[in-house]
Amino acid sequence: MSIATQPRTAAAHPTAATSTYHHHLGTSVHLLPQTDQLRALHTVIRDRDARREDFVFYAGRIIRLLTEAALNLLPFEPYDVTTPVGRTYQGLRFAENLVGVPIVRAGESMEAELRAVVPGIRIGKILIQRDKTTKQPRLYYTAFPEDIATRQVLLLDPMLATGGTALAAIEVLRDLGVPEEHIVFVNFITCPEGIAAVGERYPGVRIVTSAIEEGLNENAYMMPGIGDFGDRYFGTDR
Question: CB within 10 Å: which end of the chain, N or C, has fewer?
């Protein structure tokens, strides 16, 4: 799958974060090709009046595209097989074991599509929530395979806004010995501020996303935005 190098939704007024994310495009930041089909899918799920079943279905289609693009960034090794007519096909297979790590709870919306593409993949979990007093991300729960330090990690979370939660999750993985270069952050939508935050602290982490927003407003909401992805996906929005 080819990766686009320029988004259609750039910030109207360049900022330091905007300049930073442009620097990362095509290297550590991989944006899905901004095709008319992808924009049509986004049109459905960005509509505030979209039915939940439509939101889930069309979000799932985009998540599948993101998953395939993320897998294409992982290392492969030669692997030959014999075809039904007795010839040798010089193929490839994943060079290292994989693990998917959704950030609970919104990240779990991406788990089913990952399992559909990679049946039997190991799944870890990270639960991080913002402390009501300090406003800082707080780690509540983790569960990982014992050998996670030797695996390629697909970190799953649909929203990358300020980057606080993503940075906390990456720090957890790094503390367990996972190299930055072994982490691919599979993300539904992001913004220049989030890309800048992750890129500055963990430049080896690759980000795969379907849209780069204009930026954050004064309340740290992404604009034009999609709302609370987890609430809309799981039906807990009001």
Answer: C
